[in-house]
Amino acid sequence: MSDASTASTDRMLDPKLLEILVCPVTRGPLVYDREAQELVSEGAGLAYPIRDGIPIMLPEEARQLEQV
């Protein structure tokens, strides 16, 4: 079995990139959810997907977080 499928889903984002990325809606900080491969903006209530190691920072592509 190839590790290619797990490598794409288990890819770690560059820590320097995480330092400079902010939520495009609130300009607030993002939290990296490695398991879900998302960048979470608690302020906006959005989770931005990471596809093939690339953060998709478009609000229309983000998943709405569930209210607690």
UniProtKB/TrEMBL annotation:
User: What Pfam family does this protein match (any one)?
Assistant: Trm112p
Any single Gene Ontology cellular-component annotation: cytosol
Q: Which InterPro entries match?
A: Trm112-like (IPR005651)
Q: Which Gene3D superfamilies match?
A: 2.20.25.10
Query: Which family does the record assign?
Result: Belongs to the UPF0434 family.
PANTHER family assigned: PROTEIN PREY, MITOCHONDRIAL, ZGC:162634
- State the protein's name: UPF0434 protein SAMN04488568_10641
Specify the species: Maricaulis salignorans
